[in-house]
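Known limitations

Structure tokens in this collection are predictions and should be treated as such. Users comparing against experimental data should check residue numbering before alignment. To illustrate the layout, the record for Trehalase family glycosidase is reproduced below. The input appears on top and the generated tokens appear beneath it.
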Amino acid sequence: MKEQIINKAIQVLDNNFQKGGFTIPSKGLYPFQWKWDSGFIALGFAHYDIDKAKQEVETILDAQWENGFIPHIVFHNDSDTYFPGPEFHQSHLHPLASKKYRSTGMTQPPVFGFILERLYEIADDKQDMLDFINKQIDKVYDNHVYFYKNRDLNQDGLVYIYHNWESGTDNSPLWDDIWTTMNPPEYTFERRDTSHVDASQRPSKREYDHYLHIIDIAKEHNYDDAKIAELSPFLVLDPLFNAILIRSNEALINLYQQIGGHQDKIDFLKQQQLKSISGLNSKLFNEELGAYVHYDLRNDRQIPYLCSSSFAPLYSGAPDADKAKRLAETMLKRFGDEGRYLCASFDPTHDRFNPKKYWRGPVWINMNWMLYHGLRRHGINDLADRIKADSLELIEKNGFFEYFDSRKSNPDSETNGYGGNNFSWSAALLIDFLK
Ligand code: 2M8
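Generated tokens:
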């Protein structure tokens, strides 16, 4: 049984692997290389084809800009099955953009610190992997320096995102209140995602108008960070993004210590780490809700909703034992009734929850993977094991879907699997869960 499902996962990954040495998240729907997908995908490969794992990391890091920025999509190839593509994003507008690859001018969560660390744990030939890490690690470090230098607006260790696509949790209800502060033009364009996936499971046309408009504002200023910070209507501190940065700082420190030398980099990371942890706990923890929340910098207020990102700091080690316990209690109380799989991407008790619509409610395997490791880190093993078991059951029963309905008995559909099928990170992380 275990071998069978692992073999299926391997098939999914191998079919999505492309000649250029990178892996698409899902055929048709996502035909390029995405930043955080690529990290999770590398972990799946590492268990059975270490060369592909290395290539995956190399190809994404090769698209780094001269200022350390790593884009969220790298357009290695042409494809007309996705919108918006390279012609819309126009990364060349930024003077320090990669000359080699076209990309977007926005980023995604900085997963590569902990990805390199996990690759080291998985690899049989530790010296060979350490040599590989030694060649790549400065790029990841430079990416962290980029964030602290350009995106830590208040010098409190918390870095902002300027677009909902940077969060990875694209159409979350978290952003609804921000959309009401904007009035973007009605764009004319042909949606491609809804030709692959039922429209009821994707963002609305009006939501896309908002997404495109923020990019247009950034483009008007050649993707200049300072201008974006001044003008973007979307400017948010995300507990998921910052928790991942903190977890990756920690991994980089460990790896540099393992490699030897690099004291200046270790010192910088340690210093930032303290600030980031304290910023996260003081600015993003919401006592009333008992979890971390997002912060809208443009309107200077917390965004007081619970979602799976609210628990992501568990993975970073930022919460102390008391806070970790609180987080687990909140998760159980609001997301964990017996009739549900963990962990819905948005608060199932809230009226904005939608069990089928993308990041407005469904369960995502990459979030579950981080929550599993976060809960384990704090010794909250029962809940961790439930998350892992739920993830495996969802995939075994439904297939390698992009996201899943959290309701165990689902009145709306025969399957709990939605979005793209043969989805790479669902396959990769199943392998990592089972090996
Ligand atoms: C989804 O996002 C892209 C835009 O980046 C899209 O909807 O077109 C998100 O789930 C994101 O987190 C993910 O990285 C990407 C590719 O899987 O798809």
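For this record: DSSP finds 18 helices and eleven strands in the chain. The radius of gyration is 20 Å. Please report discrepancies through the issue tracker.
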